[in-house]
Amino acid sequence: MERFLDHYAGAKPPTVQFAKRAWEPAVDVYETGDKLVIAVDLAGIDCEHLEISADRRTIVIRGQRFNPGCGTQKLYYQMEIDSGPFERIIPLPVAIDSDSATACYNEGMVEITVPKSKAQPARTAFIRIFPRGNER
Q1: Under a CB-based contact definition with an 8 Å cutoff, are residues 68 and 45 in contact?
Q2: Which fold has domain 23-115?
Q3: Per-residue confidence of the chain (136 residues) as pLDDT tens digits?
Q4: CA–CA separation, 93 and 36 (whole Å)
Q5: Contact at 8 Å (CB) between 113 and 43?
Q6: What are the backbone dihedrals phi and psi of residue 4, each rounded to the nearest 5 degrees, phi first?
Q7: pLDDT for position 125
Q8: How many Å apart are CA 38 and CA 126, to the nearest integer?
Q9: How far apart are the C-alpha atoms of 119 and 99, rounded to whole Å?
Q10: Which of 34, 38, 53 is nearest to 117 (CA)?
């Protein structure tokens, strides 16, 4: 019985993975005075395979990371690096001037810098909830 339990206690979990949507790169969003900065981890991706768009409250990053060994026969023991198409939609905490956005790619990181909009600042509206029948 002990050998039986030892055998199954050391068993590895199955490596079958189910299909998933496009992968999403990691993102940091922070503020520096009158600008908003969005840093995106895009290691292994050429600038030619990136598309970045912005509107007043959203940044959208699309692109593709190609598997460097594509076309060669390999036997993987572990495969954690995502490849293929990706899309990341980033809602912003403040309104931005999207026409003045700039992006810089350096050593696998894309840094998008956008000035905050001088127009009406973003604010959160709190909505009171009343029990049914007590609406005002």
Answers
A1: no
A2: Immunoglobulin-like (2.60.40)
A3: 666 555 556 555 555 555 556 789 999 999 999 999 999 999 988 888 889 998 889 999 999 998 776 667 888 898 888 889 999 999 999 998 888 888 988 888 999 999 998 875 544 445 454 555 555 5
A4: 9
A5: no
A6: -60, -50
A7: 40
A8: 27
A9: 14
A10: 34
